[in-house]
Amino acid sequence: MMQYDYLVVGSGLSSLVFAALASQAGAKVMVLEAHEYAGGYGHTFQMGKSAKFNAQLHYVWNCGEGETVNQVLKKLDLDQSVTFERLDSDGFDRMVIPGYSIKIPSSNFELIDRLADLFPDQCEPVKTFLRLVDSVAVGLDLIGSPLIASRILRQGIHTLKVAQYRNATLQNVFDEYRLDKRVQTLLASLWLIFYYRQTGFHFSPG
Ligand SMILES: Cc1cc2nc3c(=O)[nH]c(=O)nc-3n(C[C@H](O)[C@H](O)[C@H](O)COP(=O)(O)OP(=O)(O)OC[C@H]3O[C@@H](n4cnc5c(N)ncnc54)[C@H](O)[C@@H]3O)c2cc1C
Q1: Where are the domains of the chain?
Q2: Do the beta carbons of residue 8 and residue 18 sit within 8 Å?
Q3: Do 102 and 113 touch, CB atoms closer than 8 A?
Q4: With CB atoms 3.0 to 4.6 Å apart as the test, which of 13, 25, 88, 133 could cross-link to 42 if both were Cys?
Q5: Nearest CA to ligand 1 atom 11
Q6: If you measure from the C-alpha of residue 192 to the centroid of ligand 1, how many angstroms do you get, rounded to a whole number?
Q7: Interatomic CA distance for residues 70 and 83, integer angstroms
C-alpha cells in the first residue's frame, strides 16, 4: 500500500500551495478532491468553445514582483507560467446604484476624493472610516504573521483596533461614523475586509 506523509482533504488554493511546497521539499502528498475540478473557488472551467470562467476569484492581491504570491510562485518555479494583468488603477470596478455610480480606484486617497465629489458632506466621516479599515487590516495582518519585535513596536497599536471592533457589525461601525446610507451601500460592497458570521456582516473575523 502506498504510504503518504500528508493527506490533504480538498484542493482549494491553500491546500494546493501547501501540497506543492511539501512535495517540492520531498514529502509524499495525496490531495483528495470531492469536486470534478481542482482549485476550489479558484478553479477555472470552460463553457462553449472559447469562453473560460473562474468560479469566484476576480482580483488577486500581492502578486507584484517580490510580494507574497510572487514569492510562492517563484519558489515553485511557476512565476513565468502563472502571470497577472494589472487592473486599471483608475477604476478596477464600477459600482452602479440607482441615481449615482462610481469607478473604484486603487488608491484610497483617490476614492475619498471621488466619494467627496459625490457626497460633499461625507468627506470627513469617510476619511476616518477608511483610516479605521486600514488600521484593522494592518492589525489582522500583524496577528497572522510571525512575531517580529520591531514590527510589533511600530504597528502593535493596530491590533488594539482589531480587539476594539472584534464584535462590531459593519452596521455598528457605519452608525458610529454617521455615514450616509448611500455611502454605506457603496462602502459595504467594496472590501473583503468585511466578514460574514451568523450574526451578520462583521468588521473583523473575530
Ligand atoms: C463570491 C466570492 C468572490 C471572491 N473573490 C475573491 C477575489 O476576488 N480575490 C481573492 O483573493 N479572494 C476572493 N474570494 C475568496 C477566495 O476565493 C477564497 O478565499 C479561496 O479561494 C479559498 O481557498 P481555500 O484554500 O480555502 O479553499 P476552497 O476554495 O474553499 O476550496 C475547498 C475545496 O475543498 C473541497 N472539499 C471540501 N470538502 C471536501 C471533502 N470532505 N472531501 C474532498 N474535498 C472537499 C471543495 O470541493 C473545494 O474544491 C472570493 C470568494 C467568494 C465566495
Answers
A1: 1-55, 58-86, 93-202
A2: yes
A3: no
A4: 13
A5: 60
A6: 14
A7: 9
Distance 128 CA to ligand 1 centre (A): 32
Cβ neighbours for 135, distance < 8 A, ≥ 6 positions apart: 157, 158, 161
pLDDT in tens, 72-113: 999 999 999 999 988 899 998 888 888 888 898 988 789 888
At position 12, the amino acid (one-letter code) is G
| Centroid of ligand 1 to alpha carbon of 11 (angstroms) | 9
pLDDT in tens, 153-180: 778 888 888 888 888 888 889 999 999 9
